[in-house]
């Protein structure tokens, strides 16, 4: 086995990546970081205009809009990348949604919808990417959450937490099944980072103080503080790492 030099360890030159939910927030940041490391990055989400705006900032970004809640859309996504660039080397399953409903109010239909986008879609995309890889190395990064590890009650919803916990179970199971195929599957579990989904939370001073009080580092995270963890899981630096959950949470889950 060829051992990469320290300078090559975190590089992604010549690699092809796919980042879902890349129209804003952490997904947009992930795409830019992978591109900066040398990868050609395909970005997908429903909001094509936001994807185009992001792609205009970096020639390494390629736009493929789609609705990940739709099975056929997911199939077309992987097929389009395979036809243009070959197999995906790095898949970042970042897209997610939240019903916003409390457990006593959430409907079974709403619950199932969240699981469809946050859990079923990542499974299907990983499956499609692993099939297309056909023995070639592949790193799947499932973006879970600390809410898949611990409860944040009274904040948070049952469907979101269940999907994020399910992603962790899925990560371990796929890692076990596909390790012999050269497919590594790991989960990234961010703590409290500002996104479109939690803007209201960060707009509430009481909620911000609650986050600060219960985080060992006494603050929420900055988007750039996920860069290193993402590159570790995407690159040769984590070649012997699979089935793991990497929490980047300022110590929240260590309480």
Structure overview:
This protein is 41% helix and 14% strand. It has helices at residues 25-36, 48-55, 71-85, 108-133, 158-178, 199-203, 205-214, 227-234, and strands at 16-20, 40-44, 61-63, 90-93, 138-143, 183-190, 245-248. The protein is built from eight helices and seven strands. Helix 1 (25-36) packs across helix 8, helix 3 (71-85) runs parallel beside helix 4 (108-133) and helix 4 (108-133) packs parallel to helix 5. By secondary structure, the chain is α/β, with parallel strands linked by helices.
Key attributes of the depicted protein:
255 residues, Sc_DH/Rdtase_CS, NAD(P)-bd_dom_sf, 14% strand, SDR family oxidoreductase, SDR_fam
Helices and strands, with pairings:
Layout: E1 16-20, H1 25-36, E2 40-44, H2 48-55, E3 61-63, H3 71-85, E4 90-93, H4 108-133, E5 138-143, H5 158-178, E6 183-190, H6 199-203, H7 205-214, H8 227-234, E7 245-248
At CATH's second level, what is the architecture? 3-Layer(aba) Sandwich
Number of domains: 1
Largest sheet: 7 strands, parallel
Task: Give me the strand/helix succession.
Answer: EHEHEHEHEHEHHHE
- For the record, what is the CATH homologous superfamily label? NAD(P)-binding Rossmann-like Domain
Enumerate the spans where pLDDT stays under 50 for 5 or more consecutive residues: none
The strands making up the biggest β-sheet line up spatially as 3-2-1-4-5-6-7
Beta-strand residue fraction: 5-15%
Structural class: alpha/beta
User: How much is the radius of gyration in Å?
Assistant: 18 Å
The gross shape turns out to be globular
Q: What is the CATH level 1 assignment?
A: Alpha Beta
Helix content class = 40-55%
**Individual helix count:** 8
